[in-house]
Amino acid sequence: AQSVTQLGSHVSVSEGALVLLRCNYSSSVPPYLFWYVQYPNQGLQLLLKYTTGATLVKGINGFEAEFKKSETSFHLTKPSAHMSDAAEYFCAVKRETSYDKVIFGPGTSLSVIP
Amino acid sequence: GAVVSQHPSWVICKSGTSVKIECRSLDFQATTMFWYRQFPKQSLMLMATSNEGSKATYEQGVEKDKFLINHASLTLSTLTVTSAHPEDSSFYICSVQTGQGATEAFFGQGTRLTVV
């Protein structure tokens, strides 16, 4: 079975500060890993994904994440927070199988303080 | 990527009535679609996997007779909440997967259902 945990249901950072959102997963098979962002009353937007290859993945809006198999982690970072980054962030996992369900973590709400 | 459109974006209905939510894949033929439910301040929970031309596969604990799913074409899946109750009020989101190995998952904008 697969599962995702996100340490910290709420994270606050100052504008311009480093953003670090933590994600750990468990999977019995090689996983695909994703980070999604959700703004209030909207659907999900894909920030970045890891499937195979390079373990440091760059996404949109300056975000990046590093897949560390030994730590079963896929933490999301951004060097400098912007006010527009305030949103809900979800880490997700799916099996390396076509059309398999995506399992979401509980989410982390990011606040950016001016 | 795939463009996924849901309709309506929000709906208010009376207890005991049924509500249909549409999920359309506008630029991709989706043999499989996924329906999620999200309660306030919570994560997305998979309700069911919608398969074109066959019965949906429901997750444990989801009542298939209450949440009717029809995937009649490669571009449309519908979720009907039957005999809705206030506890069914939630945000419903559909998803399609594309790309080789289905590595990309795209989501609709969601439907806010409020049952009064």
Overview of the molecule:
The complex is a heterodimer of chains A (114) and B (116). Chain A is mainly beta. Chain A has no helices and twelve strands. In chain A, a hairpin with a 7-residue loop joins strand 10 and strand 11 (103-104). The model of chain A has no long low-confidence stretch (mean pLDDT 91). Chain B contains no helices and eleven strands. In chain B, a hairpin with a 5-residue loop joins strand 9 and strand 10. The interface between A and B is medium-sized, with 26 and 27 residues.
Strand content of chain A: over 45%
Number of helices of chain A: 0
Largest sheet of chain B: 7 strands, mixed
Question: How would you state the average pLDDT of chain B, rounded?
Answer: 90
Oligomer: heterodimer
Structural class of chain B: mainly beta
Shape descriptor of chain A: globular
Q: What is the CA–CA distance across the termini of chain B?
A: 37 Å
Radius of gyration of chain B: 13 Å
Which protein chains are joined by the largest interface, and how many residues does each one contribute?
Answer: A-B, 26 and 27 residues
Compressed to H and E, one letter per element, the order of chain A equals EEEEEEEEEEEE
Task: Specify the helix fraction band of chain B.
Answer: under 10%
Q: Say how many strands of chain B there are.
A: 11
Query: Tell me, what's the shape of chain B?
Result: globular
Low-pLDDT stretches of chain A are none
What letter string, H or E per element, gives the SSE order of chain B? Answer: EEEEEEEEEEE
Overall pLDDT level of chain A: 91
